[in-house]
Structure formats: C-alpha cells, structure tokens
Amino acid sequence: MPIEDWIHPLLKHYTAAPQWVKSFVGTAYSAVPVGIRYGRKAPEFLDEIAITDPEILRRRAGEKMFALLDAATQHVPAYRHLRDVVTSPGRTPSEMLQAFPLLTKQELKASLEDYVSAGLPESMRMATFTGGSTSVPMKLYWHRHVTRPKSFAYNGEFDRIAGIGDRDVTLALRGRTVPGAGQPGQPLWMYDPIKRYLHLSSDHLEAEHMPAYMAAIEEWQPTFIHAFPSAITPLAKWLEAHPAPATTARIKCIQLFSENIYDYQIELLKRVFGCEVLCDYGHSEGAIKSISLPGDSRYFFWPLYGHVELIDFDGKPISEPGVLGEIVATGYDNLVMPLIRYRTGDMAMWTAQPNTLRPGFQVVDRIEGRLQEFLVCRDRRLVSICTIGAAHFEQLADADRMQFEQHETGRATLKVISREDLPANVKTALADGIRKKTQGGLEIEVVRVDEIPRTRIGKHRLLVQHLDISSYLGAAHIDNEERSEL
Questions:
Q1: What domains appear along the chain, each with residue ranges and CATH number?
Q2: Rounded to whole angstroms, how far apart are CA atoms 93 and 34?
Q3: Higher-scoring residue by pLDDT: 184, 248
Q4: Model-level pTM greater than 0.85?
Q5: Over the stretch 324-352, which tens digit does the pLDDT of each residue have?
Q6: Nearest to residue 76, comparing CAs of 105, 99, 108, 45?
Q7: For residues 137 and 335, what is the distance between their CA atoms, to the nearest angstrom?
Q8: Mean pLDDT of the chain
Q9: Separation of alpha carbons 281 and 288, rounded Å
C-alpha cells in the first residue's frame, strides 16, 4: 500500500523540524522506492505521459472521459439525473460532456457533498483546500492513492523536460514558510533532501536580505529554479544590480508556477540568468494541467490529465483562435469528487499557430489570469492587467513591488513600494501613460507604501479588485471572498 498519502498530514511537522532532523529524515525517505511511496498508480500515469501518437491519445482521452461520466452519473448525487445521457446510444463522450451543466465555485461550495461519490468509501477521500485565491479556502476532496501519484508523475515529467537530474538541487521560491525566518540568528532558508529543494523564505525579499539568500545559494549551489514569478523577480532585479556570474551561469532552467506571468518578468529572468524559462499552469482542484516547452512559450495541455474548453461570457463554447474566453476544466481520474465542466475563472485564447511539438495536445497562446485581474474603465470596458503595461514603465524600474487596487469604475490606485516617494512628474507620467493605454478609460492615483501584503501562501497579486466583475461580464461564479482576498 502506498505510504505517501498517509504521511502527507505530517508534512507540517517535518517542515517545522530543525534542519538536522529534515536532513536525516528526508534523506532516509528519499531512498524509499517510488513504488512504495506512491503505489502502482504512479507508473500507470508515467506510461500515459509517454504516449505520443495523437490518435492513441484521442482514443484514450475518450475512454477516460466516458469512464468519468459513467461513474459520476451512477454515484454522484448532482449528476444522477444525467444517467440517460451516458446510457443512451449514439453519443460520443465529447457529445455526452456537452449535456452536463457548467459548474461554478459557488455551486460547489454551497453543496459540496452533492458532488462527492457515494460509490467509494470515505477512506478514499483526501480533504484538501484551494490555497491562493480566497480568504476562506474552498474544501475539496482528492482521490486517495490517485491524485497525488498523478501529480507526482506529471510534475516529474515537467522536471525532466526542464532537464532536472537526480543529483540537481533546485532553488525554490514558492511561498513555503521557513520556520524561524526573520528571528535573530535564524536562517532565511531550509533544505529539503526529499526533493532536493533549497527553500528561500518568500517573506524576506527586500534588498537587505539578499546577501543572506546569496550565501545559502552559494552553499547549496542549485542548478534549477522553481518559483512564483513575483518571488523570483526581486532576486533577479538584485542580481542584475549586483552581478554574480558564477551563480547565474549555474542555473540551467527556471520553472514558474501558480501566478499570472508577465512578459517583463520573463525578459528579466532570461536577461539575468541567460537560460530557458518554462511556465506551468495548474490548480489545487487538479482538473487540468499545462506547461510551456523549450522554444515555445505557448501552453500545452496534457490530453490525458483532463479536458479543456473555452467559453464566452454567455457560457457558449469558443472554437476559433484569438478569442479570449474562460477556461472550463473536466478532470480525469478523481472519481471521489469528479469536477465536470468546472469554471476556473482563468482566461485564455486558442492558438492559431500549428502545433508541431506535441500533436494531440490542446494549445493556448497565453493564460491571461483570473477574471479578477481586469480593471474596469469608466465606460465599463474591461482591460486585462496583463496588457495594461504599467510594469514596463521605466519610471518604475527602481520600485521593489507594485499593486493596483480598484474600488470604483474608471479609477484605481497604483501602490508602489520604493525607498523614496516618486516625484510629481513621474506620477503624472504614469497616470498619463495608463490613461492613454486605456483610451481615456482609467484614471490612477500613484501612492508610495511601505508594504504590500502577500497572500497567505506567499503569492503577490498585481491587482486587488473590489468591484463585482460579474456585473460587467455576467460571470456570477466569481464570489466576494475571492474578490476581497489577500
């Protein structure tokens, strides 16, 4: 029986332990064979990942979709009324899927047990919570002995694509709390020998702490980086101002996770580290997953992980390239709590360019981030924070961090962390630039602040949106807890 799921609740105790305990226990555990740690499902997922024939992928995806819909309509209360959809002849799995309603976060939170299978014992449920977007996280159930082995297999494949080997150390800036960090005499880092991660505290990214980070980096000599974009950006800016060629040249690839990723961040990382920057898209719900590939910055969705749809603001499917729509996910394999046509709140557009690297994969040009990451202009137009371009303005080159906040239509505040207040002419130039980019739709007030809080798991949000986006888009699945987060 796999042991990873059973000991996972002990992770917080392992993380809080002194470094010598982590070194001893983690080294011993890392030697346990994968089959014992994750069970037979991990090799099965690795075999799926190895399939490259697009026809086999298409057929296998259809089989997995049918198995999911069949199990859901038999055992999940919310889907039992759709049993005829699955049992009636003449429909393909894709056609069956379209008969299922879209599922919103509000609906899931309001009647969670209606979406849990009665056909599996409670011992197969593994409770988890969405981590980043709500002040009151949403409870979910993973499928014990399935969900975590699946994550292990796909994350491991992403590492292999990046080039990470068995002996490589990875620098991790992904929101992990470092016990004691900031206390006198305590390090700002910890080392986890299980995954060979050098974790740096995401709570001490100011310039005065960078020498301590650099000392840890020189001691452990990581060759790869896993990071939230907002967490690695301050380190990259510091390295650009304080070059350390031996350190930056050692990095072979950077992998970015969890947050919206902006072009200026990619450009900065490539400039400082001189290596490939790859991006991962996924979520705690575990329904879909995509990555970018070396030489291609688009997002490629794993076809046997889950099924992806794009819908417009009226809930209608989008098939043509270049049209922005919301990502809808149907996750395979989790039969404890199937998520079928689940509205993620994330935005993307299908690519118009040929997919020659991974035939059989669904591909989008970029993922624009959540619906909350749109500013509302005075004429009710929505402007993506990705494209507004404030992060590119040379006037903010020396700023440590920035964040938009909006309370009323057509107006927003741009909060900037900097050592000194910005001169009046710089504030005017920023306001004029944003007014021009929004065709006169948005006025901003620039203010200097001493602190911009991160989310509870260490993420930085470029926009805190207090307006009810649903009133502009008809997207009622965005709830107040998500909008008031952080």
A1: 372-483 (3.30.300.30)
A2: 33
A3: 248
A4: no
A5: 899 999 999 999 999 999 998 888 999 99
A6: 108
A7: 22
A8: 84
A9: 8
The helix/strand/coil state of 363 is: strand
CB 229 within 8 A of CB 265: yes
Give every CB contact of residue 418 below 8 A, 6+ residues apart in sequence.
Answer: 398, 399, 400, 448
The DSSP bridge partners found for residue 464 are 405
Residue 482 corresponds to which tokens in the numbers above? Answer: 């998500």
Specify whether the CB–CB gap between 305 and 46 falls below 8 A. Answer: no
Residue 173 phi/psi, 5-degree rounding, is -125, 75
Place of tokens 């072979």: 252
- Cα 142 to Cα 130: distance, rounded to the nearest angstrom: 11
Single out the residue of 302, 283, 288, 342 nearest to residue 100, CA to CA. Answer: 342
Residues 6+ apart with CB under 8 A from 396: 390, 402, 416, 430
What is the rounded radius of gyration, in angstroms, for the C-alpha atoms of the chain?
A: 23
- pLDDT tens, position by position, 122-163: 999 998 877 444 333 578 899 999 999 999 999 999 999 999
**Long-range contact list for 314-323, CB < 8 A, 24+ apart?**
314/474, 315/102, 317/98, 318/349, 318/350, 319/350, 320/350, 321/349, 321/350, 321/351, 321/352, 321/365, 322/349, 322/350, 322/352, 322/365, 323/349, 323/350
pLDDT in tens, 87-114: 998 899 999 999 999 998 888 888 999 9
| pLDDT mean over 195-223 | 88
Edge-to-edge strands, sheet with 197-200: 189-192, 197-200, 170-173, 224-227, 253-256, 276-281, 290-293, 296-301, 362-370, 342-350, 325-331, 306-311
Coil, strand or helix: which one is 141?
Answer: strand
Model confidence at 463: pLDDT above 90: no
List of residues 6+ apart from 51 with CB closer than 8 A: 57, 60, 304
CA distance 179 to 73: 46
How are the residues of the chain apportioned to helix, strand and coil, as percentages rounded to the nearest 5? 35, 25, 40
Mean pLDDT of 240-267: 89
